[in-house]
Amino acid sequence: MGIISLERVDNLIWLGRYSERVYLTIKEFFRCYDEMLDHPTMYQEYCQNLQIPMIYESPTDFVQRYVRDEDITDSIIANLYRAYDNCIVLRNEIGTETMTYLELALDDLKSIHEFDSFLLDLQLVVDHILAFWASLSENVLDYDVRDIIKLGQRQERMDMYLRLRKEKKDIKKAYDSLHHRLNKTILPYDLLKMEQLKTGVEETIIDYPACIECVEGLL
Amino acid sequence: MKTFQLKYTMDFTFSDKINHHYFTLKCLPNTQPRQRVLTNKVRINADYYSLSKDCFSNSMIYGYKEGEHDRLSLYVGSLVEVDWTQYDTDDSLLPVYLKQTKFTQLNEEMQEYLEPFSSYEDPYQKALALSKALYHTMTYQKGSTNIKTDAQTAFTNKKGVCQDYAHILIGLYRQSEIPARYVAGVMCEEKYTHAWVEFYANGRWYGIDPTNDLLVDDNYVIFSRGRDYHDTLVNKGIFYGMNISQTQDIEISMEEILYD
Amino acid sequence: MKNLIEQQSKINHLLKRYGVKFGIYKNNTFHEQLFPFDCIPRIITKEDFDYLNKGLIQRVDALNAFLDDIYGEKRIVKDGIIPTEFIYSSSGYLVECEGITPPQHVHSHISGIDLVEGKDGKWYVLEDNLRVPSGASYPMIARDLCRRASPKTFRTNDVEENRDYAKLLKEVMDSVNTGGINAIFTPGRMNAAYFEHSYLAEQTGSKLVSSNDVVVKEDYLYFKNYDGSLEKIGALYRRISDEYLDPMTFLEESLIGIPHLMEIYKKGNIAIINAPGNGVADDKGIYYFVPKMVEYYLHEEPILNNAPTYLPYYEKDKEYVLEHFDDLVIKDVAEAGGYGVFFGNTLSPEQKEAFIEKMLREPRRFIAQEVIDFKDLPIVENGETVERKADLRVFVLSGKETKVWKSGLTRFSRNPDSFIVNSSQGGGFKDTWVLSR
């Protein structure tokens, strides 16, 4: 088993979280974009669902800046940069080969300059993130490293599903896989919060903000 | 030859909790040509400490205290035999002791001060004369300077403490091509650490105390020496903590042991 | 070769994919940029390499003997070969290293020797880099990608392998390791060579560490595992300069150093690669004396040439410099990275007068060298082949024995008129082939 410093553990978790966030938001964005063809103001609802500031002036403005503006905290590219920043210091843990896929995903996104039919280009970003995860599973031999990244991914998924008010069965599934990952690592976590989350997602009417708070404060 | 019982206690108190505290302390006398340490006892409330020597052969205590704390206490008890009839002829770092540091650098006024002494041919005589002159030029005044004061500033004000006297004299010596080093230690029956100077002439080192206009004799015990004050700093510490101020209480007792 | 050149854009694409970058500070903010790569390799014949190999081993062995002597007995000074002031006025001399003997007496484990090939076909040493020479990772990864992009080229040319650099480096670390794991100590992501630090860590199987990841305890250095356990480190390849290494010994305000590292190093409980204090041997003023070191320590004739150098410190040289000022290149020994270097003939009469006055006041601070007419190397620019100035940094590794890596970093200048090939001033790099036949 390899040895990992506390700081790198933090990077692994956040690499998992941000790569998952980018993956899920792009998928959500595809849906939103499709609906916007018929209901141009749909993006406002999208922002509300994701609880990100509605700072966009028009559908076109939303599409361009939400995808590609590095200075907007919640843009897709800003989140991908955060994943990348966490990744770049993990060469020792995950290896150059695996890192190249995230490098490619970032290059794909950076090279989008034209927004008429860019969904296929955006699909490439998704492809490379999936390849990145596949490479992690294939090439990273250290179970600790893999488990910690996956824990980050599962935590993010739980968080996003709650924010997006996903169906109950999906939320329960997200909970189960988070629970499973937590027990695979030796990282300390807030037992009480996990307990609250468990009962929270079982409720008939889920108290979303309370559950989100539990997820955020878990590690 | 004289024998002394030296007790040194130092208490650091921090204004708030600190952690990950690394420290280096130079207050441990060691055996050298003119002093012999018979016993050294060290007590310190840290996770661990160890002994080492710096490049000037000074003994040092270094260690680490990880958990939260707001206090570090040190006690050093030494039995030291001093004999100034012995010679110290170590010439290994003479070029280093000839180079000015930012603490010893001369200004114009100090250059001028040196001029009347250019007639001395014998470095030993010149060194003695310079020390005596400096003693009469300067006024000893506590609090007139601080640990960051350099030779130029102290000389301009003509006021200072032992550290300033030493820096100025070292600067004057080095300018006259006489190797000189800064010495920190304790003087018999004094309650504070003292500083004086050693200069190299006639193939050996002489000790001189410009603050008291004395030649160093069996009443002085050496802690450390170096190029200037900075090399002999008793306490260096690094720790985590926000806006921490620290106070140190030092108690020294140095008593001669008289054998019947 | 033609095929290789045709693949230039593919290779650059691969370099991008592999994140081959270096960091640079522009207007105080940190940027990472690709290190431009030119496909046409520098080719060193077997004959030339055999000559360089012997000369470099000799030179580095002499430099290591010098370092061991300077921080010990100082015989070379006592015997009058090098004047005292050249040692003690050098900013690279660290009194803090006096009396310390590193494991196996190796001070410079990784030496980057900068060479140029003159138009006369002769090689000259321009500079020795014995502190933290960087750059080996770039040709190493470029070779890998070139072989992938143009297998044909490598099927038909007999090129010595250069991807064994990590193996050589690991051998060095293992040979001086005092017990424990190998680690590479980086100042952090915001360092210009962070890519190299992390890449070499991966390739040598060493742990990449920063100051927060390690602790000196009970006279040893440990890596702090996240589960609370400690792992001993026996060899530390530090990519951080001496003054930041240990805040308790050097710069107190250094936040990127390891407190008390020097104490355990003195006790022989860790190998520091390269040893601290090496700057005294790669000082521009000491360069002049390197051939003399070869004679003094090894009792051999120096094989490699220095560029003809004059020290204004010596009366005879001073006269020469004053007479031939316009033909010489002047270097300020206190500056690094291509700064503080100028040609005598570029100064206006007033500047020249002011400079000469300065030189006469501080003769130790300057050296003067004959201008060497470098052999230019071809590069591809906008589809055309043009010639540029280029130098070569060869890496010499010293552990149990001294070995020369059969490759090197060839850097070229961007600007056609520039002689300065430093990557911090915008140049690019090439692969360096050593032919096996």
Protein architecture, described:
The complex is a heterotrimer of chains A (219), B (260) and C (437). Chain A is mainly alpha-helical and 219 residues long. Chain A is built from 11 helices and no strands. In chain A, helix 8 (143-163) runs antiparallel to helix 9 (168-184). Chain A is globular, with a radius of gyration of 18 Å. Chain B is α+β, with helices and mostly antiparallel strands and 260 residues long. Chain B has 2 domains: 2-84 and 234-256, Immunoglobulin-like (Sandwich), CATH 2.60.40; 96-232, C8orf32 fold, CATH 3.10.620.30. Chain B has helices spanning 108-114, 123-137, 151-157, 162-175, and strands at 2-25, 35-44, 48-53, 59-65, 69-82, 139-140, 159-160, 180-187, 193-201, 204-209, 214-215, 220-226, 235-240, 246-256. Chain B is globular and about 60 Å long. Chain B starts with a strand and ends with a strand. With 437 residues, chain C is an alpha+beta fold. In chain C, strands 3, 4, 5, 12, 19, 20, 21 and 22 form an 8-stranded mixed β-sheet that branches. In chain C, strands 6, 7, 8, 9, 10 and 11 form a 6-stranded mixed β-sheet that branches. In chain C, strands 13-16-14-15 form a 4-stranded antiparallel β-sheet. In chain C, a hairpin with a 5-residue loop joins strand 4 and strand 5. In chain C, helix 2 packs across helix 6 and helix 3 packs across helix 14. Chains in contact: A-C, B-C.
Concise description?
The complex is a heterotrimer of chains A (219), B (260) and C (437). Chain B is 17% helix and 44% strand.
Supply the key terms.
heterotrimer; B: 260 residues; alpha+beta; Immunoglobulin-like; C8orf32 fold; 2 domains; 7-stranded antiparallel sheet; 5-stranded antiparallel sheet; 4 helices; 44% strand; C: 437 residues; Dna Ligase, domain 1; 8-stranded mixed sheet; 6-stranded mixed sheet; globular
